[in-house]
Amino acid sequence: MKNYEQVFESTNIYYVKLTTDLIDEYLKMVNDPDIASKITHNPKTYTYEDELNWIKDKIENKANIFSMIEKETGDYIGNVEIMEVKNDVAEVGICITANKQNKHLGREALTALIKYGKEKLDIKGFDLNVYKTNVRAVRCYEKAGFIADGEGKTSEDLHMFYSKFMKLEIKKVSEEEAETIIDINKRTWKTTFDGIIEDAVLEKLQTKTKERIESAKRGIREKNNVYGIYVNNKLVGYASYGPARDEKYKGSCEIYTCYILKEYQSLHLGRKVVIKILEDFIKEGYKTMITKCLIQNPSNRFHKSIGGEVVEQTDTILMGEKFIDNVYYHKDIKQSLKLNQEKMNYSNH
Predict the structure, then answer these.
(1) Are 252 and 290 in contact (CB under 8 A)?
(2) In terms of pLDDT, which residue wins out, 76 or 3?
């Protein structure tokens, strides 16, 4: 490696401070039309003087931006940067030269940058913005541990956050969040049953009327039985619970609903909220529990995984439409709690 000032390294990459020795490489990268179209909404051609001023500005402001050098070849790879930090969450950015893409260097670089930010700068969380159309970059970020959670800085962008350092809270929802809960219900029904349930029926189940909103508010206010799942202060799912509603299972408890937005379903949030509810049920003196799941729903796997056994199928009416449920029975919720705690601990290793 040339006489660059190294800051840290990873398996295949040295991360060095910005230097005018690489200015020609920087210019080649930022003036590549294909790369520019993916990193800025307003691409332009930069001059040598533009780039020199940019380097000086970054150095003077002690920016956490690093140039990447490939260990094996000594070639310039691109730049990574820890940008604006708000509430202990840092926005990260990465740009890789055209000839070094598709070599898994992006994932390695992001992982190393996050490790550096956490250990050296005491940053608690990381996020980024990416063009929705930049599918290759989105996949790279997903493999590095980022999860999409909605629109970014513009309608063309996708906001993503680093899931391993996410802030998770499970707490009772407020009456003011009733409409958000209905929106989550609608979105999960759409992503789960699109192509399974007829469009006309699905549309009926997804209606959001003033009456439905008021009913949801009243239920939250009077029953206080809905836990919200919050990721980085955003409500991304919920679960409701209480005494079993089926007379056959009188004396048992029941988890009525558990809906989580699709993009968050790989984070074991469902199991975490089930553990919370089971702990509440045990404190209230319950010993057995049921859950129900439409037979077409892929979430039947989840109901089995949390310890339920199918004991029967029953009819259910939703928004005037008839469906069939699998009924899952937990004969000992203390054992179900232990099972889920063990699975949760295993998934965290």
Answers:
(1) yes
(2) 76
| Per-position DSSP letters for 126-139, written without gaps between them | EEEEEETT-HHHHH
Going by the DSSP 8-state scheme, the letter that residue 194 receives in this structure is B
User: What is the rounded average pLDDT of the residues 306-329?
Assistant: 91
Q: How far apart are CA 225 and CA 281, in angstroms?
A: 11
Please report, for the domain that includes residue 161, its CATH number.
3.40.630.30
* Nearest-angstrom CA–CA distance, 109 and 115: 10
Point out which residues pair with 310 in neighbouring strands.
328
DSSP 152-183: -SSTTEEEEEEGGG--EEEEEPPGGGHHHHHH
Given CA atoms 90, 159, 28, 44 in this order, what sign does their dihedral have? negative
- For residues 94-113, give the mean pLDDT: 94
Q: Are 140 and 106 in contact (CB under 8 A)?
A: yes
Domain end point (choices 136, 165, 194): 165
More confident residue, 323 or 57: 57
Residue 59 lies in domain: 6-165
235 and 292 in a single domain? The answer is: yes
- Same domain? For 54 and 150 the reply is yes
Alpha helices in the chain (DSSP H): 23-30, 33-39, 48-60, 105-121, 135-143, 178-193, 199-205, 210-223, 269-283, 300-305, 333-347
The reply to whether 1 falls in a domain is no
- Strands 64-70, 76-86: pairing is antiparallel
Question: Looking at the domain assignment, is residue 260 inside a domain?
Answer: yes
H, E, C per residue of 34-66: HHHHHHCCCCCCCCHHHHHHHHHHHHHCCCEEE
Please tell me the total count of domains within the chain: 2
Same domain membership, residue 305 and residue 233: yes
Q: Is residue 259 part of a domain?
A: yes
Q: For the chain, what is the radius of gyration of the CA atoms?
A: 25
- Of residues 154, 164, 76, the one with CA closest to residue 123: 164
Q: Are strands 253-260 and 289-294 parallel, antiparallel or unpaired?
A: parallel
Tokens found for residue 274: 């089930």
Residues 107 and 197 in one domain: no
Q: How confident is the model at residue 349, as a pLDDT? A: 44
At 161, which amino acid appears?
A: F
